[in-house]
Specification:
3-stranded antiparallel β-sheet; 3 domains; alpha+beta; 311 residues
């Protein structure tokens, strides 16, 4: 197999709308046997300064010299990534060269790939409640956003995980702001203390899975401690419940939400239990009254429960 089977590297500026400074991004295109992948150099210049023939920045000033040196470094590193794949006698694709250059494992032993595989396996496990699966999807989404915004990466090797990465992700969860559809920042944070700890708990479970599979040898969570904040929930008094029952809402949806909440108060059913109720769960008991026959969500025994509808 030749060292350079139809392998090419090409630098260019993207034909996109310039940013506020009138600049466009520089990209590197990797080609292997007609297969193409692109890498962003995270650098921007004005179109007039780019020489498409030389694939370099025009001029000899400090700005041009520094940027051209960076481009040459990227070119050497991409060539080195290609050579490493060749030396390992691996099948070379543009994607494999890109992943090797970016420090991603082609065997998918990197963070997001492992997390995504875990979620896919969970999705097909009939013993896992949908709510639990959905929570893992959310944790994956936050990890992906954290990597993109704070680490400036698409993914990382599992063995690149450190204690600092773990604590930085926790800080991100507790300080990052949410955004509305118009891109405006909402005052609410992504998570409070306990919410962040639940995400960290799920994150740690996936890392433990990787350790058991010997995809990672050092546990980045070894010195990390989950710290949940004790909360005391206030009970709803009979007077407040009565006031809520007699309240009238102009919004029909709000009235429906109130009715479901009051129903839960009297039956003791959780939101998940109420959401799963169907007419088939209601039957006449030996006392002639209507009873709910259902199975509680998130209980160790998943035992059948009965609730009277007498009131």
């Amino acid at each position: 197999m030749p060292i350079n089977p139809s392998f090419g590297i090409y630098f260019f500026i993207k034909k996109t709308k310039p940013n506020k400074q009138g600049k466009v991004p520089i990209h590197c295109r990797i080609t292997v046997r007609g297969n193409v992948k692109e890498i962003s150099l995270k650098r921007h210049i004005k179109k007039i300064l780019w020489n498409p023939t030389k694939q370099r920045v025009k001029g000899t000033n400090e700005f041009a010299t520094t940027l051209n040196h960076y481009i040459e470094t990227v070119e050497r590193n991409v060539q080195d990534a290609h050579r490493r794949l060749f030396d390992k006698k691996q099948f070379i694709t543009a994607g494999a060269v890109k992943n090797t250059y970016m420090g991603l494992d082609e065997k998918h032993h990197n963070l997001l790939a492992v997390f995504q595989q875990h979620n896919q396996d969970m999705q097909h496990d009939k013993e896992i409640a949908f709510g639990t699966f959905k929570n893992y999807i959310t944790t994956y989404k936050f990890l992906k956003e954290f990597l993109k915004t704070n680490q400036k990466k698409d993914d990382i090797y599992l063995n690149q995980l450190t204690y600092k990465f773990i604590t930085d992700f926790e800080h991100f969860l507790k300080t990052q702001k949410t955004y509305d559809k118009n891109g405006e920042t909402k005052p609410k944070r992504i998570c409070n203390q306990n919410g962040a700890m639940k995400h960290m708990e799920r994150f740690r479970k996936v890392i433990n899975l990787a350790i058991r599979n010997e995809w990672i040898t050092k546990d980045p969570f070894a010195k990390y401690k989950l710290t949940f904040k004790r909360t005391n929930r206030e009970f709803l008094s009979p007077e407040k419940l009565q006031k809520l029952e007699s309240a009238r809402f102009k919004n029909k949806t709000m009235g429906t939400v109130r009715d479901i909440f009051v129903f839960s108060c009297y039956t003791g059913l959780s939101y998940a239990d109420v959401a799963n109720l169907t007419p088939d769960n209601v039957s006449i008991g030996i006392d002639g009254e209507k009873w709910i026959h259902t199975y509680r969500e998130k209980t160790e025994s998943n035992a059948q429960s009965l609730y009277s509808l007498k009131h």
